[in-house]
Design brief:
The protein is α+β, with helices and mostly antiparallel strands. The chain has 8 helices and 13 strands. The chain binds adenosine-5'-triphosphate (ATP). One of its GO terms (molecular function) is ATP binding.
Length: 299
């Protein structure tokens, strides 16, 4: 019996490239013996609702769009008890997630991975009741971040740039946070924080340590302290630019669960989009929660 595929795509994502490639993509799916149901999204939340409602009736969910669409698919899949695996054809402008999974930007090559890539169980994060694929972040840069699509790609370069710009201001806005993880409880002022499951966040690999694994049930966490004077601020900027992490100015650790508490609301970005504002932010890693198809590794 043919396997049933639900293919959901955002026709407006990125430069609308899917529109002209659709026939080629569908031919490739059919040649791989899938019976395909195609659904172009019509509005926000369409993709999430569709997966929640129909996801269990399919053997394979494939989506094409930017980070927003992918995030909605994740949300839909996580609500299902038995989650079908997921394929992804990136069509947005930010590609950290796709590059983590070795999925190329070209639609044709990504489509080949959808039908022939290797299955890979990937950790999924949650921030309170919302899910994310590879990053949840707060702090100095966030207001600008979700207005500019390229933001996540150059997150830390951007952060260094923004900090450089605020050097002349009397103070940078910061959050006073209580951070609980594992057996640790720390309290400090932070200008920025990120919780990631990705080996491609701004290419800033040194910050969260080497050997990032996407299926180990752990996040890489980096929290940057509020600099007490211009010299400290300059040191932070330097460490962001040179990508050498300095423990005097930042906490970095790995964990599967953390709780951040603040007496004012902390505004988050998740997967590059606005992710809500909370006084209490609880983050969990759901180990190997969704199986994706990724590019095969060179032997
Ligand atoms: N037909 C549609 N009309 C308007 N908005 C849509 C439609 N389909 C999906 N959306 C919403 O648009 C938002 C952005 O979509 P998506 O992330 O796929 O593309 P993008 O913004 O071009 O990509 P990126 O964020 O990676 O640059 C998502 O929240 C999605 O739910």
């Amino acid at each position: 019996m043919k396997k049933k595929m639900l293919f959901i795509y955002n026709p407006h994502a990125g430069k609308e490239a899917m529109k002209s490639k659709l026939s080629e993509v569908l031919e490739c799916f059919v040649a791989a013996d899938y019976e395909v149901t195609v659904y172009p999204t019509r509005k926000k939340r369409d993709a999430a609702e569709l997966v929640k409602e129909l996801g269990n009736e399919y053997d394979y969910i494939v989506c094409s769009g930017g980070d927003g669409t992918l995030n909605e698919i994740t949300d839909g899949l996580m609500s299902l008890e038995h989650r079908p695996p997921c394929g992804y054809i990136p069509a947005g402008t930010v590609n950290d997630f796709a590059s983590s999974l070795k999925i190329p930007k070209q639609i044709k090559k990504a489509t080949e991975i959808v039908v022939d890539g290797e299955w890979f169980p990937y950790d999924i994060g949650s921030l309170n009741s919302d899910y994310f694929n590879y990053i949840a972040a707060f702090g100095a840069f966030t207001e600008v971040a979700y207005e500019t699509p390229q933001s996540t790609k150059n997150l830390l370069g951007r952060l260094a740039y923004i900090l450089d710009g605020v050097k002349r201001l009397p103070s940078i806005s910061y959050y006073h946070l209580k951070v609980e993880h594992d057996d640790v409880c720390l309290e400090d002022d932070f200008i920025f924080g990120m919780i990631t499951n990705s080996n491609s966040v701004g290419g800033f690999k040194g910050l969260n340590g080497k050997n990032v694994k996407l299926d180990d049930g752990l996040f890489e966490v980096a929290l940057i302290k509020n600099p007490k004077n211009p010299v400290e601020l300059q040191s932070i900027i330097n460490s962001l630019i040179t990508r050498v992490h300095d423990s005097k100015y930042m906490y970095t650790f790995r964990t599967n669960h953390l709780i951040l508490t603040c007496d004012k609301e902390v505004a988050w970005t998740v997967d590059g989009e606005y992710g809500g504002s909370y006084k209490k932010s609880e983050i969990w890693n759901h180990e190997k929660a969704i199986v994706y198809r990724r590019g095969k590794r060179e032997k």
